[in-house]
């Protein structure tokens, strides 16, 4: 989902979780959204106005009365694409449910037709109180999106339900709210399916300091994991990259080709779909030194030497052991003879689909946010996807997987 240019009002109320709204604000701004923060009087007791003013796209608003415009609530409410309240206290839920608009945030909530995402956070006793639950029910019945609190440690050392939802889940709910107004809510066509995706380039150690790796950023694999999760799949992402995980995805971090194989193989039989987007190293050093090697240990004069051995191509094993009905997808990053090489790999590794890209072309593949691919399927159908963002490529890949499953 592209948040660039979307106008988001971020309401912050007076709970200890107000500090986590800073992270929500930062993520939205990083994604290109225009964030207008509103703080209640209570929120100001927990976090500084300056923090939000510095991070957001415009200075924080705190009052119905101190802006140049006499009606800030209608400016904010009418101009928003979406309003999110994080954290939302029991007081805010009550005021919003009853229309008691005595401060800028509640007045803005009443003055908008935009979707509203409310993220409550409070102590378990308050969360479970019938008045709070009744207010939530009222808001829900009016179409307000509620992101429920999580279980965990609360202020004062208590443990229970009431923690503000994870910032990643809050941003995902905002994205879904925006997709629903754009009419682009993704199909939930992968509900109940187990999907495993690998991402990133493996790192093969030479010694404790040096590695051999490649230029894969993992972005395409992450986009495929995010798309599969948004369409309802249970997604496991086996990754070499320390990147923020898509919401709801189980992440297994690995380093080398051998680690990735050890993580993937035991899970493989239970998967409905496996997408091997990772750039697995084809070679690794024969010996991994347990101490940092000195320069001259690579060869005292002339070229340095590192003896390499092939890694195991476990995509071949996945192809050999593929259970009936499973869809197995490989990637082929090529610089020449893209289609010929891709078709060769598809046949050799017993794949259902291969995503081939010409990494020599501008804006394509490694380290870019865009990609251009040919989807080569075992049925002989090739589908060109012209240069676009990696999430759109992911959508095409998942669409192709859905068609292959339907034809199985
Ligand atoms: N792959 C794998 N294990 C390896 C190497 C590759 O599982 N040791 C997978 C990759 O994840 C990718 C596919 O195989 O999905 C193709 O990888 P690639 O390196 O392009 O293919 P190779 O068969 O190694 O061919 P090349 O000679 O082009 O390197």
TrEMBL record:
InterPro entries referenced in this protein's UniProt entry, alphabetically: CoaB-like_sf, CoaBC, DNA/pantothenate-metab_flavo_C, Flavin_trans-like, Flavoprotein
Residue intervals of the Flavoprotein domain: 7-176
One GO molecular-function entry: phosphopantothenate--cysteine ligase activity
UniProt keywords, alphabetically: Decarboxylase, Lyase
BP GO terms, sorted: coenzyme A biosynthetic process; pantothenate catabolic process
GO cellular component terms listed in the entry, alphabetical order: phosphopantothenoylcysteine decarboxylase complex
Domain DNA/pantothenate metabolism flavoprotein C-terminal: 191-403
PANTHER family the record matches: HOMO-OLIGOMERIC FLAVIN CONTAINING CYS DECARBOXYLASE FAMILY (PTHR14359), PHOSPHOPANTOTHENOYLCYSTEINE DECARBOXYLASE (PTHR14359:SF6)
HAMAP family per the UniProt record, alphabetical: CoaBC
Protein name: Unannotated protein
Native source species: freshwater metagenome
């Amino acid at each position: 989902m592209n948040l660039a240019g979307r106008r988001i009002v971020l309401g912050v109320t007076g709970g200890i979780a107000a500090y986590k709204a800073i992270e929500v604000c930062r993520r939205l701004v990083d994604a290109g959204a225009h964030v207008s923060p509103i703080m209640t009087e209570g929120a100001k007791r927990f976090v500084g106005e300056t923090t939000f003013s510095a991070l957001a796209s415009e200075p924080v608003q705190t009052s119905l009365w101190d802006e140049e415009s006499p009606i800030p609530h209608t400016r904010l409410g009418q101009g928003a694409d979406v309003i999110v309240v994080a954290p939302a206290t029991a007081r805010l839920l009550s005021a919003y449910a009853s229309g008691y608009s005595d401060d800028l945030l509640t007045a803005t909530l009443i003055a908008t037709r935009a979707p509203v995402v409310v993220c409550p956070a409070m102590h378990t006793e308050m969360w479970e109180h019938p008045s709070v639950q009744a207010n939530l029910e009222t808001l829900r019945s009016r179409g307000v999106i509620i992101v429920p609190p999580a279980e965990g440690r609360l202020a004062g050392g208590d443990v229970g339900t009431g923690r503000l939802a994870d910032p990643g889940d809050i941003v995902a709910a905002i994205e879904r709210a925006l997709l629903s107004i754009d009419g682009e809510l993704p199909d939930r066509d992968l509900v109940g399916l187990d999907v495993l995706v690998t991402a990133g380039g493996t790192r093969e150690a030479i010694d404790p300091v040096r590695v051999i790796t490649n230029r894969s950023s993992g972005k395409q694999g992450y986009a495929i994991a995010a798309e599969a999760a948004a369409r309802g799949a249970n997604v496991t992402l086996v990754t070499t990259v320390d990147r923020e995980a898509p919401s709801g995805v189980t992440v297994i971090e690995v380093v080398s080709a051998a680690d990735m194989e050890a993580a993937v193989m035991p899970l493989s039989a239970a998967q409905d779909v496996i997408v091997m987007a990772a750039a697995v190293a084809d070679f690794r050093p024969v010996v991994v030194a347990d101490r940092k090697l000195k320069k001259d240990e690579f060869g005292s004069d002339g070229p340095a030497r590192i003896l390499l051995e092939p890694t195991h191509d476990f995509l071949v094993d996945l192809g050999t052991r593929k259970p009936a009905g499973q869809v197995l997808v490989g990637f082929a990053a090529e610089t020449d003879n893209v289609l010929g090489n891709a078709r060769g790999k598809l046949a050799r590794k017993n794949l259902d689909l291969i995503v081939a890209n010409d990494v020599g072309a501008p804006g394509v593949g490694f380290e870019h946010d865009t990609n251009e691919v040919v989807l080569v399927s075992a049925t002989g159908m090739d589908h060109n996807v012209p240069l676009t963002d990696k999430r759109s490529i992911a959508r095409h890949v998942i669409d192709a997987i859905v068609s292959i499953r339907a034809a199985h």
